[in-house]
Design a protein that fits this description.
225 residues, alpha/beta, Alpha-Beta Plaits, six-stranded mixed beta sheet, four-stranded mixed beta sheet, 6 helices, binds ribulose-5-phosphate, ribose-5-phosphate isomerase activity
Length: 225
Amino acid sequence: MSEKQLAGEKAVEFIQDGMIVGLGTGSTADFATRKIGERIHNGLNIKAVATSTATAQLATALNIPIVDLNEVDKIDVTIDGADEVDVTYTGIKGGGGALFFEKMVASISQKNIWVVDASKYVEQIGKFPLPVEVSPFVYAHIYNQFQDKGMKPQMRKQQKKYYLTDSGNYIIDLHLNTIKESKEMASWLNAIPGVITHGLFINTVDLLVIGNGSTTRIMENQRHK
Ligand SMILES: O=C(CO)[C@H](O)[C@H](O)COP(=O)(O)O
């Protein structure tokens, strides 16, 4: 079994009857979603909120009842993947383009569990390009601002066109190589008009489930206890 599958399936052990569950996006989160589907088939009773159209489609195919984010007061547990996470539980998400909905769902979740393979647990984040979701109305100006600051921006593309997120925005990937001041970087990005959100997730994760060889390592963010 792959490290992604080990991590994804392990996290499902934290889900109990009656919960509202956030379903993440990406190949690792999909393993969790499939396992939840299996448990529903065996009698588990939950409702779920999806973080992307792709995840909603997978969940529906597995008979997982999907509800709108606005129909729930809170989400009990969200299981999501990540592209990189460091020892302070700061991470980069959005490799799969779902960062905006993922951030919204995480923000109203009482417990956020991230599932990753061992290669994503790093000392310093930033090797993975940082996604910034921007409005198509003003994207070129934001791109130029990044370029002028030497942040090596790249418009994300799909089939030669600009990649469109589920909410109809573009993504600019910043090839920074290392991000030391993540809080400052997050505040700066948040303040740029036309930036919808970015892939820096700070102080979000409660529990990190890392697929490690043939087993899993579970790490609890002590600051969230
Ligand atoms: O943030 C994400 C999607 O926006 C994903 O969780 C992240 O890209 C990890 O994906 P994978 O599990 O396929 O490696």
